[in-house]
Amino acid sequence: MKFTYYLDGSGWATCILEVNGQKLEFTASYLSDCLSDFLQSLMLLNPLCVPRDETRRETECEWEGEPDGIIWSFELKENNRLNIIADYYEDEHNKEKTTTLINTEYPYDDFLRIVLKEIDALIKRHGIIGYREDWDEFDFPLSTFLKLKHYIIHKQKYPVIEAQGEFDIETRSELIYDLGLLLEEIK
Questions:
Q1: Domains defined for the chain, CATH in brackets
Q2: Is the pTM of this model over 0.85?
Q3: Cβ distance 73 to 58 under 8 Å?
């Protein structure tokens, strides 16, 4: 499997996915926050990243390309197998007419590790502010990325604590840990 994702000018991102002999290459625009939506869709499948009552077996997100787009569908199956479907449409006003570019299964953890390695390189190359400047209007999906990165490295829930704040119980993470994880390499 190969996953490439890079910012391609202000407000444009190109993704290339090759998996099980199937290939997709698509350039998305800033009309959708495609990276955030993509990572969120993968995270919602994982009970170690979201509360059990928010965990889903199936998720979907859409990347707009002006006027075309991709509709990603993910389903977590038995034995942690991820069903991946990427449907392409030529016109946003006719999304019912699609061509399936990818329809395959791949181990969830392996897929996630390859995706996260690429996104890890992306954020280290651009930086948090540089990413926002190039992506135009959207911030890097930092908390989603860190939860998924922690999962793929440690196979456990992100370390947060509940503590009494000035007015109410607060959920807290250790900033030093957050920053260290951001800089850590994925093996």
A1: 2-140 (3.30.2450)
A2: yes
A3: yes
